[in-house]
Each structure stands twice: as structure tokens, then as C-alpha cells.
Amino acid sequence: MIYKLKVIKDEREYRQALAKQRELMESGSELGSDDLRRLEVLTVLIEKYEKERFEIGNPDPIEAIKIRMEDKGMKQRDLATLLSSPTVASEILSRKRNLSLSMMRLLSKHLDIPVKIFLNHIPEQVKKQKGMLSRALINELVKKGWIREDDIPAREVNDEWLREIFPQKRFYDFTFGTGNSAYFRRQLRRNATVNPLALKIWQYKALERGARKRSGDYDRSRLTVAKLRELARLSGEPDGVKNSGRTLAELGIRLVILPHLKKTHIDGAAMLMPESNTPLIALTLRYDRVDHFWFSLFHELGHIIKHLGEKRRLIFDDLEILDCETQEEREANEFARDMLIPNREWQKFYREGKGDYSPVSVEKFARKLGISPAIVAGRIRYETNNYRILSQTVGYNQVRKAFYEEYFR
Question: Which of 1, 104, 151, 355 is the most exposed place for a label (fewest CB within 10 A)?
Fold first, then answer.
């Protein structure tokens, strides 16, 4: 059957064109032959169809992956090799796992899919996953007392059910509104899937608790280096962790302790309350250590001072992700380190230690600065990448009990 060159209008004609293209490419036609000219024209027609198919509207990235795999003659095992995991490949194709940014870059390069197809689709992924109310998440919410067993929807989660369960409109609109979706782009992890619904529920509850707190008026100019160092020295007091919320409230910042939900993978968040613009720090205490508490607290303070405003009202933080740091995260990390331990003091202590950091030397240095030894121990463990040392000094199992009513209620 003779193949006639024509504009490609549907998938059947597209596959016929691909078959003819492969046939011509494998025929070994010489330059200037009729077959080569036919191949050139056919290639232009195929590229035109592919461009229209992939760039009109907001194409689904998983379908784009499947189409490209078919075009290239790839099987699922080939995708597994590309992603270095058969499980990941299977979960991606079955839509059980979100694509991480590194996966997007890899697939874009090897499957010739425009990156914007993936990026433009992220808000849609979040929107579609509103219905991800798994039995495990239901059990968590019921156990925490955030919903009742009677409140569980019989079918897919929708806006009507969410508004009924989470009735405070200003918090609902801020949390579940479409404008909030962009913030979840930062939650993509390399080896885990964030559940957007769980994250939004956690955010709503943090705002709800924050509204019950009381604080003075916030004035950024009051957060001087001297005032922040004074807050850091609070860590050296016996009840410093417990009293940190009161000190922050005097500065116009509210502190909320709210355990994380599974598949949210966050240590805390910095946000501006709807309507009032009052800064709110919400910590999960995912790791019950004194050093982690103070670093997380000052990290979020860094975001409040440096990054939050009219254009950016919310930042979630997973402090485990070190290889995906943004400029904002690097700035917040540097801010926390310098406010807790002045850089000049740290450099002098670190050089003099020469790798021999005993609990006695840590205690002495901490006492000199007026801060908790746990902060110094945590910094040493991080800088040396040795988490086997000073484990008795970082303050395990001391933070959650200081916030017992908030954390366990």
C-alpha cells in the first residue's frame, strides 16, 4: 500500500506516519533520493502534529510519558531503568506517586517532553488530589480529634464536605483556595509523596489554633539583632523552651505547636494570618530534641523577617531536604545559625576544638554565650556530619513534654 503524504489529523494517522518514518529511516536512502525527500516532509508533518498535541491546552504529563514511550518503543522496564526503580516507574504510570522535580528534568531530557508540561500541571495534580482521603488519613484525623467518625464522607471528598468540616471561611479560603496551590510545588520530595490534602488540613488547623493565641502588634523593626540574641539566650534557661511562645507573642509573633500528619514531611511553617497579617510560626516537633526546636524556631523567624509579605504569605519547611535548598532556605538557615551562635564566636570555637568536642567543652562554650548546650552540640554534629557524638547533649525527649497540652491534645 502506497503511503500518501498529508496533514496528520488524528492518532491513527499519526501512528501510520511514525511507522512509515521508521521504514524510510531504516531503508538507508541516499541523499537526494525521492525517499529522503519524502522522509523530510513526513518528519515536518509529524513534528507539527506532536507540537499541536503537546502544546495546546494543559496536557496530562502521565499521558505524555506514555505516548512518548510508545513513540520510542519503550516498555515499563525501560522506564524503570531510567528512573532506577521498577516500583517508582509502576507508581508513576499508575498515578500513585507524584513526579519530583528531578524526575521531571530526567523525563524531559530522555523522552523529549517540554518541561512546562510537567510544571504547568502541578496545580492540577494538587487539585485532583483533594480526594486523597485514605483510610490511614481518616484514622489519623479521628485519633487527633480533628474530625469525627460520623463526619467521614461516603464518597469522594469535595468542596462542600471540606467547608462543612472546616467551617471558618477566612482560613478555608486561605488554605484550600486555588491561590494556595503554588506553595505545594515546594513540597515535592525525591523519595516520598506528599499528600496535599493532609498538608492543607494541617495548615488549616495551625491557623485555627493561631487564631486562639494572643500577641502584641507586630513591628519588624523591633526584631533587632540584640532582641533576637536575647531570645536565643532564653534557651539557656530551665523553662526556656516552654516560655519561648510568650516571648514571641510580646514581639507580635504567634507560636503554635501542631504534630505533623503522615505524608506531609514537614518540621514547621511560617505564615501570615489571613486579614490580620500577624506572623505565625507552626512547629511539628517531628524530632523531639532541644537543638532541633531552637534551630527550627529561628529558621522560621528568618523566613518571617526576610521573605514573608504581600507576595509570599506562606512557607513550609522540611529541614531534611538539604540537596534541594532554594535561596530562601539557605538564607533562613544562615540566619538561624548566626542568631543562635554568632559566626565569629563559632569560628573561634570550631577551630580551637580541632575535632575533639567533649561535653565539657560544649557546656563551657554554651555557658559563655548564655545559650543551651544542645544548640552547640547540634551545630557540631551537623558541621562534622557525625551524629553519633554528643547524643546525650542535644536534649532528646525534652521538647514535647514542655508543650504537653498543645502537642498531645
Answer: 1
As a whole number, mean pLDDT of residues 366-393 equals 94
Closest CA to 320 of 352, 290, 344, 286: 286
What pLDDT is attached to residue 127? 45
Torsion from C-alpha of 68, 70, 73, 78, nearest 10 degrees: 70
C-alpha cell at 297: 524556631
- Domain 58-120 CATH (choose: 1.10.8.640, 3.40.640.10, 2.40.340.10, 1.10.260.40): 1.10.260.40
What sections of 213-358 are H helices per DSSP?
A: 225-233, 240-250, 290-306, 327-340, 343-353
For 237, counting Cβ atoms within 10 Å of its Cβ (0-12 exposed, 13-18 middle, 19+ buried), the class is middle
pTM of the predicted structure, to 2 decimals: 0.68
- Rounded CA gap, 287 and 355, in Å? 26
> What pLDDT does residue 365 have?
95
Cross-strand partners of 280: 254, 271
How many whole angstroms from its chain centre is CA 113? 24
Helices 86-93 and 61-71: angle between axes, nearest 10 degrees: 120
